[in-house]
Design a protein that fits this description.
Number of strands: 29
Number of helices: 19
Structural class: alpha+beta
Oligomer: single chain
Number of domains: 2
Largest sheet: 5 strands, antiparallel
Shape: extended
Length: 634
């Protein structure tokens, strides 16, 4: 409920929510004035609903109860074309039976006859006759004699629309439909979907503070052969606080990659603290900002979820994307086009990895591909599986399309590009007039036959200036860093590819065998491969050296248990409990080890402790009962 009102607050920075205040004022007004003629509350009546949705009308024409005319009102409104309304429109309310509450009139569903109380016509010669319901012109003429304005609105609610009696005003029906859907159109309900999606992940104090954002996600292969997912998030607002003469914000990025069956392949958290001086703050107020990051990922098809939290203001935004890392790059294929508004080339290789930085080129881009005529358009893509013949004889053809016709073309031989799979072309936009464009890139073989194709859309804006965002990027180590073997190895392990996972994690461990997370990860692979002595050899040295992470004791105990070294397993399990606290799985494992050693008393102690924590363990309960019964028999 708090989020519902907060997202509709027209001035979020103030204590009072003006929308909420006005909404409840309208409800109170509707209850007071529109519930008088019915047993229902005023907000439930047609007039009450319209008043709450649209507010007070600019004017009201009232038609009181007459001999041949039902009581009616015409409310006049000015419309907002952005929400599908005409520039001006009327709404008619009338009493169907001449008494009770006013109902909303529809020219399509009702018709002029519903506004007349009596269709008995007295002719000049004194004779009388009843109008037939199918006599549309006669009914309209009679209504026009009594109330011309009401008669006009009986045919259409939209001033200026020409409708003759007997024909339907579909525009009026669409208008009424748009009015009832107006609250949904006026506020995007994405916040509610996000709130429900992440309510078990995001802390309570964040849930009412969802902010909208634009997102850009691109995938490129690094020269090392590693694929990286590059992404940029542009939130709709930046909330900061003042602290010791600085203005600060702190972003936490929480990401998850899962396969199409929902299995988690990779999870991570990153922090990005920001601080600004007074002069920087003034600049930022006039610009958007872009939070950028990148992650390495193994081949496959995935769901990519990211939550971005501002821990200072307790706001969050998020996105979900379907992404694919090519499983086989030996076959000929082209990546989607990546469009940027600026390229900066570095003379020397960076000692770090940065989002959207590809082989000495930093490409600046935004989710919405909008450019100024004075800017350049950078077009980047990668091609995999190029044969030697294509490298020498192949051609890239660039075609710009405007209004479905070719506007500009350029061809370039592939052998003119220095990089083997990276292709970057920059086009000045000075001759591109404001409009919507499509760019198509074709790969042509030695016979100029089209064999690959990708396209993208962009706009040239007529406005004089387009403020580009401040970029805050999370920097990563270079691709040579051993950490990537660990990250990719863990992903392969989570995916269930033990052989490849072992290769990656062994390299990480061999590079730094004293790092506990490397040792534990490679031990996890060996344990799953049932190489229990390898696990012991790797983890035993940490018994004396490890002071913080004691999870390795669980794996060490499980390996000893698998080797039937039950006393050692019990020792490691108990050390684990001493450091990590009570654990159901470990208690059950201790009970099993004692049981296999023939020490039923100690097994019973461990299992009964386990049952105290979780009584719903039928197998443990049955075997414990059996031990107690045998003990009682003795």
């Amino acid at each position: 409920m708090e989020a519902f009102w907060k997202i509709r607050d027209p001035v979020p920075g103030t204590v009072e929510n003006e929308f909420k205040k006005e909404h409840y004022r309208r409800i109170a007004y509707a209850d007071k004035f529109y519930g008088r003629e019915t047993t229902r509350q005023g907000w439930r009546t047609d007039r009450g609903r319209i008043y709450i949705i649209l507010g007070p009308p600019i004017s009201i024409d009232r038609f009181p109860d007459r001999m041949a005319l039902r009581p009616a009102e015409i409310w006049f409104y000015q419309g907002d074309p952005d929400y599908g309304f005409p520039a001006a429109f009327n709404l008619v309310f009338y009493k169907r039976a001449g008494i009770g509450e006013h109902r909303l009139y529809s020219p399509v569903q009702n018709g002029p006859i519903d506004l007349l109380r009596d269709t008995l016509i007295i002719e000049r010669d004194g004779r009388s006759r009843h109008l037939s319901p199918s006599d549309f012109e006669g009914i309209y003429e009679e209504l026009f004699k009594l109330a011309p304005v009401l008669a006009l609105n009986s045919l259409t609610l939209i001033p200026g629309e020409m409708v003759v009696p007997g024909h339907l005003s579909l525009a009026s029906e669409i208008l009424i439909s748009n009015i009832y859907s107006y609250p949904q159109k006026k506020v995007d309900d994405e916040y509610a979907e996000k709130l429900l999606r992440y309510k078990d992940i995001v802390e309570v104090e964040y849930t009412a503070n969802y902010i909208y954002s634009d997102v850009l996600v691109k995938i490129f292969q690094d020269p090392s052969g590693i694929f990286f997912v590059h992404y940029a998030i542009e939130p709709s607002q930046l909330s900061i606080v003042e602290f010791e003469n600085e203005y600060i914000a702190n972003f936490k990025i929480i990401g998850k990659v899962s396969d199409l069956e929902g299995k988690t392949i990779f999870q991570y958290e990153k922090n990005l603290p920001l601080s600004f001086k007074e002069d920087q703050l003034q600049e930022i107020k006039t610009q958007s900002y872009s939070i950028q990051d990148m992650i390495p990922l193994i081949p496959g098809h995935y769901k990519f979820d990211v939550i971005l939290k501002n821990t200072i203001s307790k706001e969050f935004t998020s996105f979900e994307k379907d992404i694919t890392i090519p499983p086989d790059i030996s076959s000929l294929q082209m990546t989607p086009l990546f469009l940027g508004y600026k390229v900066e080339k570095s003379s020397t290789p960076l000692e770090v990895n940065k989002p959207f930085y590809i082989e000495n080129h930093q490409i600046f881009s935004q989710p919405r591909s909008i450019f100024l005529p004075r800017e350049n358009l950078a077009v980047f893509f990668q091609i995999f599986g190029l044969s030697d013949l294509l490298r020498e004889e192949g051609t890239l053809k660039f075609i710009f399309i405007k209004n479905r016709e070719a506007f500009f073309e350029k061809e370039k031989k592939i052998n003119e590009y220095q990089k083997k799979r990276n292709f970057l072309e920059v086009f000045p936009l000075e001759n591109f007039k404001p409009a919507s464009y499509e760019i198509k890139v074709f790969l042509l073989d030695e016979n100029n036959k089209e064999i690959l194709f990708e396209n993208e859309y962009f706009d040239i804006t007529p406005i004089a200036g387009l403020p580009r965002p401040w970029v805050f990027a999370k920097v990563m180590p270079t691709s040579k860093n051993i950490e990537y073997y660990f990250i990719l190895g863990k992903q392969l392990l989570n995916k269930g590819d033990l052989d490849k996972a072992k290769d990656y994690l062994e390299r990480a461990y061999q590079n730094n065998p004293l790092r506990i997370k490397y040792a534990m990860s490679v031990s996890d692979v060996y344990f799953r491969l049932k190489k229990y002595r390898k696990v012991k050899d790797i983890l035993m040295p940490f018994l004396d050296s490890q002071k913080e992470n004691f999870e390795f004791l669980k794996l060490l105990g499980k390996s000893c248990q698998s080797l039937s070294e039950f006393k050692k397993a019990i020792s490691y399990y108990k050390q684990y409990l001493d450091h990590m606290g009570t654990n159901l799985e470990i208690l059950n494992s201790i009970g099993t080890c004692y049981y296999l050693l023939g020490d039923m008393a100690q097994a019973l102690i461990a299992w009964e402790k386990s049952l105290e924590i979780n009584p719903n363990q039928e197998k443990i309960r049955e075997i414990s009962k059996s031990i107690r019964n045998k003990k009682n028999e003795k």
